[in-house]
Amino acid sequence: MLGLERRLVYFPDKSHLRTPASIGLDFEDVWLTAMDGVRLHAWWVPGAGPNTLLLFHGNAGNISFRLGDLALLTDRLRVGVFLIDYRGYGLSEGRPSERGTRLDADAAAGYLTRQRGIDPRRLIYFGRSLGAAVATHLATRLTPAALILESPLPSVMRMTRESYPWLAPMINPLFLTRYDTLRSLALVRSPVFVAHGDQDETIPFALGQEVFAAARDPKVWYPVAGGGHNDMTVMGGVAYFDALNAFITQYVG
After folding, report:
1. Catalytic residue among 64, 92, 97, 129, which?
2. Backbone angles phi and psi of 120, in degrees to 5
3. Which run of H or E residues covers position 140?
4. What is the pLDDT of residues 76-133, one digit of tens each?
5. Residue 129 a catalytic site member
6. Rounded average pLDDT over 43-62
7. Pairing status of strand 146-150 against strand 192-197
8. Is the pLDDT of residue 252 over 80?
9. Mean pLDDT calculated for residue range 37-52
10. Cα–chain-centroid distance for residue 219?
11. Has 200 been annotated as catalytic?
12. Distance (Å, whole) CA 141 – CA 70
């Protein structure tokens, strides 16, 4: 069952062909060690403004697949960005698991606040897809200035019922992997921004609405017309980043 869970939930890629330097961004390679001893790889990209974004990517690829989004985030939000590869992804060691990604998130947040001296009042967690669940759970334990969730899933159980309705009754009772964003959101005290594409082919739009409904106030809902699962920044365009900037300005400064 654990092997089946991994194949259904995680799609890591070990190839690492490009770095932020290939798109003209200054960056620093960072190596971290999680609490259980697993060595993790990350990138630090400085920003022009006072705020820092801790970015948790989705369940496929690795951080080298996120250079397009990285360029837009640093340019349009003027934030520093810290991207970490979960264990088993990219250059990071180990094998992915729910507990493992939580330890990876702890290591990333600890590095920013302790080694880099980032003020938690200027630290924003940004999670997309599976990364939204990772970011939300981290926010229940280490409170950020704000939490941004893009194309979030409510939980693995909810996703299996949606994607594999014939299989879910058999496998859900046996699954150990939960990523229960809805349960975690009930404990989050930070302002929350939830964005979802109304044409998302992986995590249906209605599930994003469920996530938003579970968040406490203050919160902002931002639907992206025509947005799929992997083209939110393109389909959202300037208006999407204007909304993100307005949210950050209001709640972080």
Report:
1. 129
2. -55, -25
3. helix 130-141
4. 999 999 999 999 999 999 999 999 999 999 999 999 999 999 999 999 999 999 999 9
5. yes
6. 97
7. parallel
8. yes
9. 97
10. 17
11. yes
12. 26
